[in-house]
Amino acid sequence: MTSIAILGAGRVSANLASKLVEAGHQVTVGTRGAVDNWTGPQVAFASLEQAARAGDIVINATPGAGSVERLSTLRDVLTGKILIDVANATVRDDEGRPNGLLYTDASLAERIQHALPRTHVVKTLNTMLFTVMTAPRSLATPPTAFLSGNDAEAKAAVGDLLSDLGWPKEWIEDLGDITTARGTEALMLLVPSIVRNRGMKPFALTIAGSDK
Q1: Is 210 among the domain residues?
Q2: pTM of this structure
Q3: How confident is the model at residue 212 (pLDDT cuts 50, 70, 90)?
């Protein structure tokens, strides 16, 4: 059993919490205020700082546009910990759809790593509808969970956690260091077109390769 903190109390957090609790982990959800309309399992709720202190592994499920600012206030608390970043930082159009990247010179994950130099940041699970994060086998085609991060041991630990979420190891692709998150975050710009064409159905991006 691992003690896991999930920062943010939205639908992504609720979805992850449900599967992690089912897998036997102890989950604390960090929030900045009262929690309304929580759809996840019975878990402990705490402030962002209290949750971060409680977690051996911390998941950033806060809105990407404000993640760097929020996490920067937790710099000391997050020292030495693994931080899994599942967020995307995008500019939104009038209808709330991704219309551009908030950071054009680096990824959100890079910005977080720069703000938290003593934390092991790993980017993953940001290239799919949130329901697929915990149900990869629900898709007709095997999806890919990409990993980006500077620390090999941290990425290995995140890979083990992904296994608890239902991801076979052969569906996990280690892209390299944290700069490789630029590619996976840019894929968010495809989402409005995918949703327009297919509706709000579960989807993920994957690598279609050949062993030949």
Answers
A1: no
A2: 0.95
A3: low
Return the CATH number at 57.
3.40.50.720
Distance CA 159, CA 174 (A): 9
pLDDT at 211: 65
> Can you spell out the DSSP letters for 13-38?
HHHHHHHHHHTT-EEEEE-SS---S-
Per-residue model confidence (pLDDT) at position 121: 98
* 191 within a domain of the structure (yes/no): yes
Residues 44-79 pLDDT 10s = 999 999 999 999 999 999 999 999 999 999 999 999
List of long-range contacts for 176-180, beta carbons under 8 Å, 24+ apart: 176/148, 177/148, 177/149, 177/150, 178/107, 178/109, 178/110, 178/113, 178/121, 178/123, 178/148, 178/149, 178/150, 179/106, 179/107, 179/110, 179/148, 180/146, 180/148
Q: Please give the Cα distance from 189 to 82 (Å, whole number).
A: 27
Exposure on the CB side of residue 11, measured as CA atoms within 13 A: 4
Residues whose CB falls within 8 Å of the CB of residue 91, separated by 6 or more in sequence, listed in order: 98, 99, 100, 101, 102
Q: What is the mean pLDDT of residues 11-21?
A: 96
